[in-house]
Specification:
Layout: H1 2-15, H2 23-36, H3 42-65, H4 71-94, H5 100-115, H6 125-128, H7 147-161
Helix pairs in contact: 1-4, 2-3, 3-4, 4-7, 5-7
Length: 162
């Protein structure tokens, strides 16, 4: 578990140094590489498959719904998505010794932050909630999420919990 946490910490540090117009592509490339790497474990692959699917969903919906949006907006959403997932995983690792009921509350805070902050208000609930509804998935979040608002909501939820 420590190795997993260190990997995520390294990704976070690396993502902070990217310039604005490369964030989306860099994060997508890294997620795809981890998904396709034979040396990646199942947990790493699942987490990065979520990132890959969320990034692909984001760019497709932006082209459909927001054709005039800027690359900066896409990059800021991609960066916030990455930070949201890393913050979620870091929170789980830091609270690994807590009772199961407390960990469930943590997970619910992040799930609620995701589903309560839609970006596109997509009516295709089967698609956008495919990860959210999968109880076997570690990243149970909505694909239709405004990741910048969601991370703020997660911070606020954790603050209320403590």
């Amino acid at each position: 578990m420590k190795r997993l946490f260190l990997t995520f910490a390294l990704l976070l540090a690396m993502s902070g140094s990217m310039n604005a117009q490369q964030v989306y592509y860099e994060l997508r490339q890294k997620a795809k590489a981890i998904v396709n790497a034979p040396s990646s474990n199942a947990t790493q692959k699942r987490i990065n498959q979520f990132k890959l699917d969320a990034l692909d969903y984001l760019v497709i919906k932006m082209r459909e719904e927001m054709p005039d949006s800027t690359v900066t907006f896409l990059d800021s959403q991609a960066f916030a998505l990455n930070n949201f997932v890393l913050y979620y995983l870091q929170t789980l690792v830091e609270n690994d010794n807590q009772p199961a009921a407390f960990k469930e509350k943590l997970i619910k805070i992040f799930m609620d932050a995701s589903i309560s902050n839609p970006l596109f208000y997509d009516s295709d609930k089967e698609l956008v909630l495919s990860y959210f509804a999968d109880g076997n998935n570690l990243t149970r979040f909505s694909l239709d999420t405004d990741w910048r608002r969601a991370i703020l909501a997660a911070h606020a939820g954790l603050k209320r919990l403590k």
